[in-house]
Amino acid sequence: MLTTKTVILKMDCSDPDLLDRTVRTYTEGMNYVSAIVYNFGKPKGSAALQKIVYPALRGQIGLKSQMSCNVVRQVTGTYRTLQAQVRAKKTGWQQITYAPTSMTFSFGRDFSLDGDKIGLTTLEGRKKYRFFRYPHMERYLDGTWKFGASKLVKHKDGTYYFHLCCERETETREVAESSTFMGVDVGQNFLAVASTTDKKCRFFCGGKAKDLRNIYSTMRKRLQSKGTRSAKKMLKHLSGRERRLMTDMNHRVSKEIVSFAVQNRVDVIGLEDLSGIRDRPDAPKKRRYAHHSWAFFELQSFIEYKAREKGISTVYVDPAYTSQTCPRCNHISKNNRNGRSFVCECCGHSLHADLIGARNIESRARTYRYTLEVQGCSQPPGRELST
């Protein structure tokens, strides 16, 4: 199975003017191609689109050859995503405008790595820039990982970082041949609750994420109500801090979950397929912020790639009624759950509601394994991961 990892390299650029001009010109090229695709009214294949826009990208805008190819592929991919959202009736057809904050590079064509230096193709040819090589990066730069399409990103403070995409094949046990499973129920009271086939369980990060979101939500409301110059300055200072703290928390929790799986020799981790959950209109107004700021996809993505590095597979199961189903008698009822408490109205089985969810997810992952075995399949198709 292919494992993908993005390593963020902080660059040491004493004179970033050339990179600024290169990124701005690259963005100008993307906006030019975006306008053409928008006028078509639908996405066009990258090969056909390249024949149309390549002369202007090279001559009129002044991009290098590989830059022009990257522009076409990136814009084409963006509009294909937009088309999928239009078909799902989540948005309408619109022209996409890009900001000069990032630029895509292809390994071996317009970027290379040599020790602690990275070679980038700019408007003035290939230039080498030093990056800070920290110890945690060494395992990704030792030659065992292959490099793919990566991005040069400019942060708000003007500092440039290179998001290096690394990938390699890792051996994971086939789902149909697995014997030990673990279900992970992600939530808001506890970030995650895990339960294995032999009923070993663990609760992760109880209430900390919820408290963090409540603190920052209250702080923003208070500053926004004041509306003073100093309040706006503080809002700008706090911008993104909650997101960074939540990402760090998800990283730590996902690492603990995978470590717990390794300790219990788990072959497959079961997760809920929560795609489309934000589209549900039944969230109460008071809980709407907590519902929409819940970073469940990020946590699941971290669990998935960390598990893959350890040779553990992940499968996504139907989340319907996982917190209302009794794992003992399979009775389903809303009355079974009352807040964090679960008591089956049929057989009287009682347990923590989140742990009930984790056990039902583990059971469905096991059932999926038997389904694959009956159908003669070995491995389910994996969900694509964003890094």
Question: Percent of residues in helical segments?
Answer: 40-55%
The overall strand count is 16
Oligomeric state of shown chains: single chain
Strand content: 15-25%
Tally of alpha and pi helices:
9
| End-to-end CA span | 16 Å
SSE string, helices as H and strands as E: EHHHEEEEEEEEEEHHHEHHEEEEH
Count of the domains: 2
Low-pLDDT parts are: none
State Rg: 24 Å
- What's the mean pLDDT score? 87
Global geometry: globular
Q: What structural class results from the helix and strand content?
A: alpha+beta
Largest sheet: 8 strands, antiparallel
Family: In the N-terminal section; belongs to the transposase 2 family.
Domain Cas12f1-like TNB: 296-361
GO molecular function: DNA binding
Organism: Methanoculleus sediminis
